[in-house]
Design brief:
Elements lengths: L1 E5 L10 E5 H12 L3 H10 L3 H4 L4 E3 L2 H5 L23 H13 L2 H21 L1 H4 L4 H10 L6 H4 L6 H16 L4 H12 L9 E3 H14 L9 H10 L5 H15 L12 H7 L9
Antiparallel strand pairs: 1-2, 3-4
Helix pairs in contact: 5-8, 6-8, 6-12, 6-13, 8-11, 10-11, 11-12, 14-15
Length: 286
């Protein structure tokens, strides 16, 4: 990997850009350029804070506490799908996207993609302070893999609840197969395991809360005003629901039948699947 540094030594009054390799980068900062803003920007870009970059910032698990009893913190404005960048240029994201397409039924894959777009709109418009630091790749990986545990071959392969199975699959894929950074792989795993861990007590990672907000919006349309109507309609055109509400209701009932202890049951054995299947807010798009 090659970088450029600004040589500010007396021998180079014109601040000639010179190539330096990654191994010498830190040495150059410490020795002569450590106060220069260009160098520090480069250093920070290469060494982002893993807590904020991969969504580990602790926030309340209770969304009501975050939104202070209001429908939103900032009124959503139209944000079309073409204006939301999906980070497919990241090779790990590209490989995971191909993997998700091959493993998930089409309605589940489209749901996973919609969740990325809902989450990005919510992130940018409701939590701008986090938007400047959260990795789009980490968000994309979480969205693509959050329901991998519901794939038919996965749901029948274990006694684990699908969120836990999905988290383990994601961790192994990202860390062992694709060599993703540990904070990223574990951040994705944590968020997947807890993406249905709705509650009112305790904390959750910011990434986990963001995925909860986006998945619940798509599945049950809780907090329906978090996303503008224009954004909703446009994203639906890009990634149609394909009968998603009934599809996911069937999956919930299937898992609860196979695994009466499933984590999903904490949302209500009948309340949750009925709420998903009867999602009136999204019915026109089914």
């Amino acid at each position: 990997m090659l970088l450029f540094r600004v040589d500010l030594s007396s021998k180079s009054p014109d601040n000639v850009l010179k190539k330096t390799n990654y191994q010498n980068f830190h040495e150059n900062i410490d020795r002569q350029n450590h106060h220069h803003p260009i160098i520090m920007d480069m250093y920070e870009a290469l060494n982002p804070d893993p807590v904020s970059h991969h969504g580990w910032t602790p926030v309340p698990v209770d969304a009501e506490a975050i939104f202070q009893g209001k429908p939103y913190l900032h009124k959503p404005h139209p944000l079309l799908a073409k204006h939301i960048h999906f980070p497919s240029e990241d090779p790990i994201v590209a490989k995971v996207q191909d993997y998700a397409k091959s493993q998930l039924p089409s309605p589940t894959y489209n749901h996973s993609m919609r969740v990325f777009y809902w989450a990005t709109a919510i992130l940018k418009q409701q939590f701008p302070a986090h938007a400047s630091s959260l990795s789009p790749s980490t968000l994309a990986l979480t969205c693509l893999l959050h329901d991998i545990g519901t794939a038919p071959h996965n749901i029948h392969s274990t006694r684990l609840s699908f969120e836990f199975q999905g988290g383990i699959i994601a961790l192994n894929l990202l860390q062992n197969t694709l060599s993703a950074p540990q904070p990223q792989a574990e951040g994705v795993c944590e968020a997947i395991i807890r993406h249905q861990d709705l509650g009112t007590t305790g904390k959750i990672t910011f990434l986990g809360q963001l995925i909860q907000l986006a998945t619940v919006y798509d599945n049950m349309s809780t907090r329906p005003y978090l996303v503008s109507e224009e954004t909703k309609v446009d994203v639906m055109k890009e990634f149609p629901r394909m009968g998603w509400s009934k599809c996911f209701e069937k999956t919930i009932r299937e898992e609860n039948g196979l695994k009466p202890w499933a984590h999903t049951t904490h949302l209500g054995g009948e309340v949750f699947p009925n709420g998903v299947g009867g999602n009136v807010f999204m019915s026109e798009f089914e």
